Amino acid sequence: MATTTEVSQNVPELAIKSFLFVDCPGTQSEDAGKASACSGCPNQNICASGAAKGPDPGIELVKNRLKDVENKILILSGKGGVGKSTVTALLSRSIAALNPDMNVAVLDIDVCGPSAPRVMGVAGEQVHQSGFGWSPVYVDDNLSVMSIGFLLSSVDDAIIWRGPKKNGMIRQFLSEVDWGKLDYLLIDTPPGTSDEHLSVSTYLSQANLTGAIIVTTPQEVALLDVRKEIDFCRKVNIKILGVVENMSSFVCPCCQTESEIFPATTGGAKQMCSDMNIPYLGSLPLNPVIARGCDEGRNIIAELGDSPSTKNLTAVVEKIIEACRQ
């Protein structure tokens, strides 16, 4: 089993130089700069003096870095396994394909389970640094991606980090990546409503966050957790652009017949949206061609052609673009 130290050694020094102190009490704690974990930290004197207890300077850094990003969208779901990363990949590729002059990027902040490099077809690529910051990895001329997966020496490396280190990594991604001028930045998140979600919502609080797209599957066991995510968005004042119901039905690759794999026993996402007064963006079927294509990192949008899956995806994207314009 890898230790925290072993994992840290696999990440470039630039990425971990601020994250060596696993049990950091935080700048707002009364023990800031005084706890045993603070010993040897380069910021110990600043924290102990109380100078660090003001507003997080990272918020202003993120605001300045993302000033040329027109739409910043979180992809959320309280439930794991609903296909957030797949939906993020499909949405980003579809938006980028709509207009070659439109610049789109994906930021993967799932620190412990980064899958964007794989599903976007750029696994094994390296991140480079310039005088303007980290350069994202380009999938196409107008589509780029950034993930901690690019910073690991092996895809099998485990990230064993507590909250403060995750928080610092997310801040670096938001404030030190040279995105350039973007029309859309899609931020893929892990399931839940904790560390990563609080960090990204805090850092984007002054950066004109456009809103969140929430992904679910039809069955009630998923909707239970998705309702918590909706409550999270409302409590931290994140606008909900709408809900996408993924795996709404199964499409046979031979005869194109649709059937229910996850029965919507309580009415599915459409009924939930009606009950909670939030927009319903549409549904995406469970298509084995899409699943295999994303697993292999292929541009499945181009391969699907004029299929029902493509039509559903296009309808969802059009509603998202319209919601962003409003």
From TrEMBL:
Cofactor: how and how many bound: Binds 4 [4Fe-4S] clusters per heterotetramer. Contains two stable clusters in the N-termini of NUBP1 and two labile, bridging clusters between subunits of the NUBP1-NUBP2 heterotetramer.
Q: Which residues bind [4Fe-4S] cluster 1?
A: C24, C38, C41, C47
Cofactor(s) named in the record: [4Fe-4S] cluster
What residues form the membrane-spanning segments?
none
Q: What is its main location?
A: cytoplasm
What Gene Ontology terms describe where this protein resides (cellular component)? cytoplasm; nucleus
Q: Which GO terms describe its molecular function?
A: 4 iron, 4 sulfur cluster binding; ATP binding; metal ion binding
User: Cellular location of this protein?
Assistant: Cytoplasm; Nucleus
The residues the record assigns to binding ATP are: G78, K79, G80, G81, V82, G83, K84, S85
* UniProt cross-references to PANTHER family, sorted A to Z: CYTOSOLIC FE-S CLUSTER ASSEMBLY FACTOR NUBP1, NUCLEOTIDE-BINDING PROTEIN NBP35 YEAST -RELATED
Q: How does it assemble?
A: Heterotetramer of 2 NUBP1 and 2 NUBP2 chains.
Chain's role: Component of the cytosolic iron-sulfur (Fe/S) protein assembly (CIA) machinery. Required for maturation of extramitochondrial Fe-S proteins. The NUBP1-NUBP2 heterotetramer forms a Fe-S scaffold complex, mediating the de novo assembly of an Fe-S cluster and its transfer to target apoproteins. Implicated in the regulation of centrosome duplication. Negatively regulates cilium formation and structure.
Q: What is this protein called?
A: Cytosolic Fe-S cluster assembly factor NUBP1 homolog
This protein's species is: Cryptolaemus montrouzieri
List the taxonomic lineage: Eukaryota, Metazoa, Ecdysozoa, Arthropoda, Hexapoda
